[in-house]
Each structure stands twice: as C-alpha cells, then as structure tokens.
Amino acid sequence: MSTYDEATAFLGNWGRFQQIIFFLLCFSATPNGARVMFLVFATAVPRHHCLIPEVNLTEDWLNAVIPKKVVNGEEELSRCSRYRLDVVRNLSAQGYVPGRDVNLTDLEQESCVDGWSYSTDIYQSTVVSEV
After folding, report:
1. What is the pTM of this model?
2. Alpha helix (H) ranges present in the chain?
3. Which of 121, 118, 128, 116 is nearest to 52 (CA)?
4. Which of 47, 36, 49 is nearest to 122 (CA)?
5. Which chain regions cross the lipid bilayer (predicted)?
C-alpha cells in the first residue's frame, strides 16, 4: 500500500500554482458557507394560523374562530384550519357566545382560504412568511 506522498507525487511540489488554487478555493468556500448558514435562519417557519379578514365579530368569536389543538402537551392554535367564517359571522351577529351557547366542536371547519397570519415573536420576516 502506498503512502499519501507517493499517491500524490504526480501533482508536484507545493508551488505557486498550488498556492493560488488553494487560496482561490478558500475564498470561494467562505461565502458559500455563509449562504448555507443564512438559510437556517431565513427559511425558518414561524408560528402561524389562518388569517381572519376584517369582519364584524365579537371579541369572544375572534378568540374562538381558530380551533385549538394540543401539540406536545401544549395547547396551540391550528395551523391549517378555522371554523367556517360565514357560520361564525352569523352566530356572532345573533349574539351567541362560543363555548356557552355554541359547542365549538360541532362547527364545520374550512382551510385557510384567506392565507395565514405569522407570528413575529422570534423572526420579523422569513422566506416562508414573505412567499
């Protein structure tokens, strides 16, 4: 079995050409590494839930329109659904109170048709929240 020096002998000695190539590769690697580290922070997914457009809802219904789910032992707002807005608007207009007059688990849910609302607790904006 040959040693490293024997295996790389055909490359020649550590001359000016090897030094130039080495430093050019080092200079090109630094920005690429910084770009990869940037992606860790720029592509983070902040906490989010369905966007509630400007509608005439009582404060109780604004707080209850997004279903709550237990994830890893903690209660958080659903990321993918909300109660049907037309039904919630009608119940709010009639003066019903969620949880007292209306059982929320009986209400039909819909997807986030108006988009999402992203939390800015940790990040002001990310690729996910902008695109």
Report:
1. 0.62
2. 4-7, 16-42, 59-64, 85-93, 127-130
3. 116
4. 47
5. 20-42
